[in-house]
Design a protein that fits this description.
GO biological process, one term: spore germination
Largest sheet: 5 strands, antiparallel
Number of strands: 12
Pfam family, one: GerA
GO cellular component, one term: membrane
Keywords: Membrane, Transmembrane, Transmembrane helix
Protein name: Spore germination protein
């Protein structure tokens, strides 16, 4: 046998190549009762050793090759009892796969390298989504294992139309990414556009789906999220049934849904699990809370600074009495309290779970009370800030809540500069921006702009399920009729 193609020379070349990879191991052995040498290469922590010991080493070392000659077909088709086998020819391809958890098998006299899928099965268990808790609804949420996430989608119901396109993202660290859609429902042009944008991504490593979201959105300068992220398999399945497309990335529990409109960010799966009257009430309250979270501080500043005549006389006298001795303008005191509350909220998220919520609530009460006692802010402002914070907590999507919290501050400056006139102009500016914004070709303000009366059944209100027989026309689905 040619020394250059022998197993020993190949192992020497591989050892030179992996000398900086301390977690990659090579195990040499002999096939059965023969003198034919073989070796496996695997990565610690990524490979299931018990599976390799039983299905690979034991099978190859105990088999008698007396009656059948050693061949690639015999090893792959008869001896290796594993579900997935890949064949490569170069050491570069082999090393790339070994570093993702595959086990490489090399046999003296066989040029091809067999890659065995025997990944370690350790992953976080299926738990309830923390960021999207519901009173009524499924308790299962995605985890960091892409196989588990795909299985959760499949378990939503027997459906042969659920299609998954597999891609890889990352130039230096490759990760699996799946584009999910419903064949026969999703518009092929939408699927192709999502595929095109994802395929164009050039990045060293996509650590989280947020990287993908930022690289494929329509307008990266907009403060509004143009792609929905979720940990809930039921939300993803419902979106796919409407004709949307989902993106799942290995290593993150957050899936992406596209396209999206602003109204979808204020909707919750629970709207559909409850009866339509309760769902409508909750949704209207959520829209009202979003407006309050955005404009209440600005309205307070404009009324105090420019339009005290619009406040009832008894109330304005009470407010003036509480502001006596406050050394700051209404804008400055509002900024002090709003920034303090935002810092407390962020601190509560980063602290350990047992003390995080208590820190946020107690810290807010203590700071508010201390600020009033010290004469830094007025009591009415504490009520305004507390109301604003409570309203912002009602936003079901965390990313949408961040956008409203961020946009609250420019509204306050507009109110301090021009009063209610500035607040109205700011609201018109936001409305114009939302009207022009798109998500994968879908108007962000739809069905309000452009106006689609037929789709208001699932906008501000949630109509009875028996009346919602059509899928959203803005998605141009292949099958526009729901099965009810």
């Amino acid at each position: 046998m040619n020394r250059e193609n022998s197993i020993e020379s190949r192992i020497e070349a591989i050892r030179e190549q992996i000398k900086e990879y301390g977690d990659v191991n090579i195990r040499k052995f002999e096939l059965g009762q023969t003198a034919v040498k073989a070796a496996i290469m695997y990565c610690d922590g990524l490979t299931d050793r018990e599976q390799i010991d039983f299905h690979v080493l034991k099978a190859l070392m105990s088999y008698s090759f007396d009656q059948r000659p050693i061949s690639k077909e015999l090893i792959q088709n008869t001896l290796l009892s594993t579900s997935e086998i890949i064949e490569v020819e170069t050491q570069e391809e082999m090393l790339s796969k070994v570093l993702t958890g595959f086990t490489a098998l090399m046999v003296d006299g066989i040029n091809e390298i067999t890659l065995i899928h025997a990944l370690a099965g350790k992953s976080r268990s299926i738990e309830e989504p923390i960021s999207e808790a519901l009173v009524r609804g499924p308790r299962a949420g995605f985890n960091e294992n892409i196989s588990d996430n795909i299985a959760l989608l499949r378990k939503q119901g027997e459906n042969k139309d659920l299609c998954l396109l597999k891609l890889q993202v990352g130039e230096r660290a490759k990760k699996d990414l799946y584009i999910a859609y419903m064949k026969g429902i999703a518009n092929p042009a939408l699927v192709e556009e999502v595929h095109r944008r994802v395929a164009k991504i050039r990045i060293d490593n996509a650590l989280e789906s947020g990287y993908i979201e930022q690289l494929i959105e329509d307008n990266y300068l907009s403060p509004f999220p143009q792609i929905q992220n979720t940990e809930r398999p039921d939300r993803v399945t419902a979106a796919l049934m409407e004709g949307k497309v989902a993106i799942l990335l290995d290593g993150t529990p957050f899936a992406l849904i596209a396209p999206v409109t602003f109204s979808m960010l204020l909707q919750s799966p629970e709207d559909y699990y409850e009866r339509w009257l309760a769902g409508t009430l909750l949704r209207i309250m959520r829209f009202f809370a979003a407006i309050m979270a955005l404009f209440v501080p600005a309205t307070y500043i404009s009324f105090i600074s420019f339009h005290p005549g619009l406040i009832p006389t008894k109330l304005v006298i009470s407010i003036i009495a509480t502001r006596v001795g406050v050394p700051f303008s209404s804008l400055l005191e509002a900024l002090i309290m709003e920034i303090a509350i935002e810092i407390l909220r962020e601190a509560g998220l980063r602290l350990p779970k047992p003390i995080g919520p208590a820190m946020g609530i107690v810290g807010g009460l203590i700071i508010g009370e201390a600020a009033v006692q010290a004469g830094i802010v007025s009591p009415i402002l504490v009520i305004v800030v507390a109301l604003t914070s409570i309203c912002s907590f009602s936003i079901p999507q965390y990313s949408a809540g961040i956008s409203l919290r961020m946009l609250r501050f420019p509204a306050m400056f507009c109110a301090a500069a021009f009063g209610m006139y500035g607040v109205v102009l700011y609201a018109l500016l936001l409305g114009a921006h939302i009207s022009r914004l798109q998500s994968f070709g879908v108007p962000y303000a739809s069905p309000a702009a452009p106006y689609r009366l037929g789709e208001w059944k699932d906008f501000l209100m949630r109509a009875p399920l028996r009346m919602m027989k059509r899928r959203p026309k803005l998605l141009y689905p292949q099958d526009s009729t729901r099965k009810r």
